[in-house]
Amino acid sequence: MKEKKETICKLNKGRVWIPKSMRKHFNTNAVILKEADGGIFLRPYKITCVLCNSTEEIDYIKELPYCGKCRAKLAGTPGKD
Ligand SMILES: [Zn+2]
Fold it and tell me: How far is the CA of 52 from the centre of ligand 1 (A)?
């Protein structure tokens, strides 16, 4: 198995900066952190729309993630289904 290049990220007030190339490679908009084996493991995670599970154009309405299509549907619905 080929070893991947290591990147050192200095902590800034507890924040970890993930290089753009790595975010793009994993095509992710969130990560999962886990303590294990004396280390901190970080795994790509996809935030999904609460209505349709899409990962496209996620934005939040009242702290819940919605995709672009569902936000458009919600915006165009006059109070009923
Ligand atoms: Zn959706």
Answer: 4
Task: Tell me the two tokens of residue 6.
Answer: 């290591």
Residue pointed to by tokens 């991947």 = 4
Average confidence (pLDDT) per 10 residues, the chain, 81 residues: 74 86 83 92 91 92 95 81 53
Closest of 45, 68, 46 to residue 58, by C-alpha: 68
Q: What is the pTM of this model?
A: 0.55
CB atoms inside a 10 Å sphere around CB 12: 8
Task: Parse the chain into domains and list their residue ranges.
Answer: 11-44, 47-81
What is residue 65's three-state secondary structure?
Answer: strand
Ligand 1 center to residue 74 CA distance, Å? 10
Interatomic CA distance for residues 13 and 23, integer angstroms: 21
